Amino acid sequence: MAQHTGVSRLLLIGTVFASALVLTGCAPGSGPVTDYPGLPVVNEELDPGVPIEEPTGDEPFVQYLGDGGRLAVTIWGSSTCPVVGKDLVVTAKAHEGNAVEVVLPEPDNGPCTMDFVPHTTEFSTPYDVTTTKPLEVTIGDAVVTVPIK
């Protein structure tokens, strides 16, 4: 009987460990899915019928893509030193306020061109937020509200 209990414990520990790995691997990462120069791009396969909103001015711009599974974050800056969000952190879950923050890298101190162009970074929409409420997105000192999807 003691042998059976030891095997059961090992199986239980192995199952818990494997479950944690699977859950971590299946959840969309908080890092960028992709980034590219310019405004958000609609992929007809991923985003059928999704209109791209035209940003106004040079403030950060955020919109859902596809069925709301991705967030496109557009930030203006130098074309040779673009500001690319490196992480997306949930600051208030859906039932607590529905907010995220785009973590920005340290400023590049190298030589950068003096042009002012958009650069877009796409993130997976975190599971802890919802597209059925406005989403507050903090990007540096700016706060952008993304409307309901």
Account of the protein in words:
This protein is globular. It has one helix spanning 2-26; strands spanning 32-37, 61-65, 70-77, 87-92, 99-103, 117-124, 135-139, 142-146. The chain is built from 1 helix and 8 strands; from the N terminus they run αββββββββ. The chain folds into 2 domains: 1-29; 31-146, no CATH class. It has 149 residues and is of the alpha+beta class. 17% of the residues lie in helices and 32% in strands. Mean pLDDT is 81; it is low at 10-29.
Topology:
Elements: H1 2-26, E1 32-37, E2 61-65, E3 70-77, E4 87-92, E5 99-103, E6 117-124, E7 135-139, E8 142-146
Cα-to-Cα separation, first versus last residue: 57 Å
Which regions are unreliable across 5 or more consecutive residues at pLDDT < 50? 10-29
Give the percentage of residues in beta strands: 25-35%
Overall domain count = 2
What pattern of helices and strands is seen along the backbone?
HEEEEEEEE
Helical percent range?
A: 10-25%
Query: Judging from the principal axes of the Cα atoms, what is the shape?
Result: globular
Gyration radius, in Å = 20 Å
- Helix- and strand-based class? alpha+beta
Biggest sheet: strands side by side, in what order? 1-6-3-2
Number of helices: 1
**What does the average pLDDT come to?**
81
Keywords: Signal
Signal peptide: 1-20
Structure summary:
The chain is α+β, with helices and mostly antiparallel strands and 149 residues long.
